[in-house]
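Regression test case RT-17, inverse folding.

Input:
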């Protein structure tokens, strides 16, 4: 039987070994807990990132809608102002290629506003755009504006004002290459004259 003096180092060694095992077990348990927490945190971070991305897309879509509404409000205001001005001239345009197409143009030289509202035009084919032209008293054409026709609904177009002193007899809309031109070259889609004053 070992003496007490020999048992002390043995017991100390056993205690130290057991302590080391306990520390290792505690570290492994802690590592597993940290790993589980890390996985949970990573999952929550990924979920938050996905939510932020979704909210960013929603914000961009809402901003685009607000921009479109502001544009429509501005165009509607321009139409109302052009329509009620004392010097307003109105031209009604009828379709040449599409019987259902029609437009109305309000021109107020005093307020420097010109506005056109178009219905019934099909969207332009790829590589083409609609272009409005002022037609002078001597049949000369002057650029008035470019526009797209929506698949459904009404196109509202703010036109450039004709040059000062130019007598404008009517308005024509043609289908032109994308970017428009300096002179009409495409098919006439709408045309009409201002009523005589």
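Golden output:
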């Amino acid at each position: 039987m070992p003496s007490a003096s020999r048992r002390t180092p043995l017991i100390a060694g056993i205690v130290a070994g057991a302590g080391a095992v306990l520390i290792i077990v505690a570290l492994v348990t802690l590592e597993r807990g940290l790993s589980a927490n890390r996985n949970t945190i990573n999952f929550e971070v990924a979920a938050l990132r996905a939510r932020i991305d979704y909210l960013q897309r929603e914000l961009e879509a809402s901003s685009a809608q607000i921009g479109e509404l502001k544009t429509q409000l501005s165009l509607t205001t321009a139409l109302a102002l052009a329509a009620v001005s004392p010097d307003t001239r109105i031209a009604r345009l009828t379709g040449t290629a599409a019987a259902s197409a029609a437009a109305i143009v309000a021109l107020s030289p005093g307020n420097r506003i010109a506005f056109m509202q178009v219905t019934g035009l099909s969207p332009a084919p790829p590589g083409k755009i609609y272009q409005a032209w002022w037609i002078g008293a001597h049949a000369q054409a002057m650029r008035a504006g470019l526009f797209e026709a929506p698949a459904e609904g009404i196109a509202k177009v703010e036109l450039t004002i004709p040059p000062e002193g130019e007598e404008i007899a009517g308005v024509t809309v043609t289908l032109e290459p994308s970017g428009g031109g300096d002179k009409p070259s495409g098919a006439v889609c709408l045309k009409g004259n201002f009523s005589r004053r």
